[in-house]
Amino acid sequence: MSVLTYLIPISLFLGGFGLVAFFWTLRTRQYEDPKGDSERILSDQYDDHPKG
Amino acid sequence: MTVAPAANGLTPAASSALPAGEAEHVSASACPACLAAPSAEALARSGDIRGARIMLSLPTAHCAVCITDVERELSRQPGVRSARVNLTLKRVSIDAEPGVEAAPLVAALDGIGYEAYELDPGLLSATETDKRGRDLLMRIGVSGFAMMNIMLLSISVWSGAEDATRDMFHWISAAIALPTVVFAGQPFFASAWAGLRRGRVNMDVPISLALILASSISLYETAHHGHQAYFDAAVMLSFFLLVGRYLDYRTRAVARSAAEELAALEVPRATVLREGAEVVVPVGELVPGDIIRVRPGGRIPADGTVTEGTSETDRSLLTGESLPVYAGPGVTLSAGEVNLTGPLTLRVTAAGKDSSLHRMADLVATAESAKTKYTSLAERAARAYSPLVHTLAFSSFLTWLWITGGDVRHAINIAAAVLIITCPCALGLAVPAVVTTASGKLFRKGLLIKDGTALERLAEVDTVVFDKTGTLTMGAPAPENLFDLTPAQFAIAAALGGASSHPLATALAAAAQARGIVPAVLDDLREVPGYGVEGRLDGAILRLGRADWVGAEAGSVTATHLRIGTEAPVTLRFADSLRPGAEAAVSALLAQKKRVLLVSGDVEGAVAALARRLGIAEWRSGARPEEKAALVAEMTGQGARVLMVGDGLNDTAALASAHVSISPASALDAARTASDIVLLGQDLAPVADAVRISVQARRRIKQNFALSALYNVVAVPIALVGLATPLAAALAMSLSSITVSLNSLRLK
C-alpha cells in the first residue's frame, strides 16, 4: 500500500491545481460573456492581438 | 435621447465595473479612465479627467459578425476610446471621452442596421450583483473539487478498504470536507439563520441541518474507527444545491440589471423664468404660479396653462391618443405630454403631488397593493417540505432510540441518513433549472423576464389585454396615399417635411428617403409652430400643415395637407403603422384559445379599425387610465388571469394590477418598472411564444417535483429501516439531480 503515500498527494495536487486555475479564470472574469467569447474566435480581427 | 449626467461623473465606487479584459487592474486603479489612458493616471486620480461610460442594449445582436460590426462602427465615432460587446447580455459598453452622448452612437448603430437603446450607466448595482455571482461560482468550484477528491477516496472505501487504510481515507476526506462545508455551505447557513431568527423555517434549515449533522457524525465515526462516513454526501449536497442556487441567481441577476438599466431617459428638471432669467430647477421644486419654458421635443414637467406660443403636443403616452393635439394660449396641458413643434411658455397650475402625473403614480401604488402576493411553486413546495422532513428525521431518531434501547449513536446515524436522503438536491434544482432554460429561450427571442415567478404566472393566463398606441402599433404614423402625389409634389413635400420635427412631417420625409426621392431645394423654409411648414419655390408659396391653414377641407382621419402656390391642396392621410409581429402575436394567442381584448384611450374609429384588422372581437375605446385598471381588476374579480401588454403611462396602473404584464422596451420608465416582462426588440410576436413556453415550463417544474418526490418515496423507507449506506445516498442523490436537470433541458 506504500504506493498510496505518493498517489494521494499527487491526486490532491492535480485537483488543487485545477481549483487554482478555476480561481484564476474567475478573477479575470472569463465567465462574463461565454456566448460572445465563443463567437469571437470566428472573427479574424483578434488573431494577432486578443482583445481584452 | 439624452445622456443622464451620471455618464460623465462616474463615482469611484462604480469603477470596478470594468470590461472583462481590464479586470486584472481592478485593485490597482481608481477609475475607468485610468485604464483607458494609463499615462494620465495621476491626473485622473485627482479627478480632472473622467471618461464617459455609455451602455447600450443591443437586442438584435447574435453572432460574431454583429460583434465586429458594432465594435468597428462604434470605435469610428468621434470621442469613442473603445467599445466591447457582451453577447451574453446583449449589450455593448463604450468607453468614451467626457461629453460624448449616447444619442449619436445609437443613431450610428441604427445606420448599420442594429437596434440600440441607451442603458443607465449607473452600474453600481450591476457590480454588486456581479460580485455575488462570482462568489457563488467560487463556492461551486471549491465544493466540486472537494466532491471529486472525496469521491475517489470513498469509492476505495466502498470497494473494500479496511482498518487503517479506511481510517486514513476517512481522515483525508474529513480534512477536505470540513473546510469545504464551512466555506461552501455559508449561503445556506446564513439564509437558514435569517429565517430562524424571524421565526420561519425555510428550505435552508433542513439543508443546513443535514450538512452539519452529516459532517459531525462522520467526524465522530472516523474518530471511533467507524465503517461509514458521509463526507462525500455532505459535499455533494452542497455542490448540487449551489448549482441550483447559482442558476436561480443568474436568471434573476441578468434580468434585474438589464431591466433596471434600461435608461431613465428623462432628467426630472424644468426651466423656470424667474425675474426674467431662465433657471433650471428640479421638478420637485416647482410651485403653482411658476412660469416655465418647454422647448420643442421636451416633456412637460407639470400641469399648466399655455401663456405664450403655439405648438402641438403628443399625449399618446398619457392617453393613448395617436393624433397630436393643438396647444395655444389658454390651453391646459398635463405633465408628461411631449411638446412637438414650437417653444411654449406655461403657467404652472399643479405641480408635484397635485399634478396629474402624480395622481397616476398613486393609482399604480393602489393597484400594486391590491394585488395579492403570488406564492411560487417553489415556495409552496418548501412550505410543505421542511416540516415533513424534520418530523420524519426526528421520529426516526426517537423510534430507533426506543428499538435499540438507548443507542444514541445508532439513532443519530439513522436520523442523519434520513436528512441526507430527503435533502432537496433535486428539489433545489427543479425550479431554477427550468426557469433558466425557459428564460434563456425567451431572452434569445427578445423577452426579458424581470421576475422569476413571472413565468409561472404567465402560464396561468387566460385573458390578454392589449393597449393600442405604442403597443400593437408603433405609435408612429406612416403615410397611406403617397400615390396621390406627383414626383414633383413629393419632392416638395419631402423638403417641407424635413424641416419639422412634427411626427407627420418626419414620417413624410422618411417615406421620401425610403423611396429615393430627393427633396426639392426651397427658399425661405420656416416652421409656423402649431400650423405647419412654409417655403417658397419660384415665387409660389408652399405650405404643408393643418387643413385650415393650408386652405383644405378638414377630414376625420389623421392627415396633413400640401398646397403648392394656387393649385388645389392635396390631402395626405396617415395611419399608425402596425408593430411587426402584432398580427402573428394576436392570431397565435387566439389559436391558444385565449380571450384577447383591445383597450385604448384613442378615438373609436382608430381602435375599431385596428381591432378589425387584427381579428380582435372585443375592444374598448376612449378608456381612461383608471378605467383600464378597473377593467383589469373586474376581470380578475371574475376569476380571469389577465396578461396586460402596454407601454404608456395610462397603462401603468393596469400593468400593475394585472396577474402578469409585458411592456416594450420603448415604453416609459414607469410602465417598464410596473411590468414583469420587457420586450427588448420591436417585434411583438414573442409574446405568444412566451405564453406557450411558460405553460411548458410550468409542466416541467411539476414533473420535476414529481420526479424528486418519487425518488424520496423509494429512498426514505430504506433510510428509515437503517439500510441506507453512503453509497446508496450518493447514487440516489446524483441520479435524481441529473434526471431533473435533463428533464428541464427538454424544454422547446
UniProtKB/TrEMBL annotation, chain A:
Residues 32-52 are annotated as: Disordered. The chain crosses the membrane at residues 6-26. The keyword Chaperone does not apply. The keyword Transmembrane applies. Keywords: Membrane, Transmembrane, Transmembrane helix. NCBIfam families: ccoS. This is Cbb3-type cytochrome oxidase assembly protein CcoS. The lineage of its organism: Bacteria, Pseudomonadati, Pseudomonadota, Alphaproteobacteria, Rhodobacterales. The gene is ccoS.
UniProtKB/TrEMBL annotation, chain B:
The keyword Magnesium applies. Gene3D superfamilies: 3.30.70.100, Calcium-transporting ATPase, cytoplasmic domain N (3.40.1110.10), Calcium-transporting ATPase, cytoplasmic transduction domain A (2.70.150.10), HAD superfamily/HAD-like (3.40.50.1000). This is Cadmium-translocating P-type ATPase. It comes from Paenirhodobacter hankyongi. The gene is cadA. GO terms for molecular function: ATP binding; ATP hydrolysis activity; copper ion binding; P-type divalent copper transporter activity. PROSITE patterns: ATPASE_E1_E2, COF_2, HMA_2. It is found in: Cell membrane. Its main location: membrane.
